[in-house]
Specification:
- It is a single chain.
- By secondary structure, the protein is mainly alpha-helical.
- The chain is 90% helix and 0% strand.
- It has one domain.
- Helix 1 runs antiparallel to helix 2 and helix 1 packs parallel to helix 3.
- It is built from 3 helices and no strands.
C-alpha cells in the first residue's frame, strides 16, 4: 500500500510546516502581534491537515484488514515507526502552540 507511505510523508511535511509557523509566531508575538497570530493560525491549519491525513490512513488500514486480513508485517512495522515519530513531533508542536496561547 504505497499510498500510505505517500500520505505518511505528507504528514511529515505538514508537521514540519506547523512547527515552522508556530516558531515564527513565538518569535514575532511581541513585535508583530497580527503577523504572529496569523502564523499561529497557519500552524493550527497544518495540524488540521495532519489529522485529516492520519484519519485517511487509519481508514485505509481498517478497510484492508476487513478485506484482506492483517497488512504485511513489514509495512506495519514501517508505518508504526513513522507514526511514533509523528506523535512525538505533534506533541512538541502542540506544546509550543499552548505556550503561545498562554504567553
Amino acid at each position: 500500500m504505497k499510498i500510505i507511505k505517500v500520505m505518511s510523508e505528507k504528514i511529515k511535511e505538514e508537521l514540519k510546516d506547523a512547527e515552522a509557523y508556530i516558531d515564527l509566531a513565538m518569535e514575532w508575538k511581541k513585535d508583530q502581534t497580527e503577523a504572529a497570530d496569523l502564523f499561529r493560525e497557519l500552524s493550527a491549519e497544518e495540524m488540521g491537515h495532519v489529522d485529516k491525513l492520519h484519519t485517511a490512513i487509519t481508514a485505509m488500514i481498517r478497510a484492508y484488514r476487513e478485506t484482506n486480513g492483517e497488512p504485511p508485517a513489514g509495512m506495519m512495522a514501517i508505518y508504526e515507526y513513522m507514526h511514533e515519530q509523528q506523535i512525538a513531533d505533534a506533541m512538541r508542536i502542540k506544546v509550543k502552540q499552548k505556550m503561545y496561547e498562554e504567553a
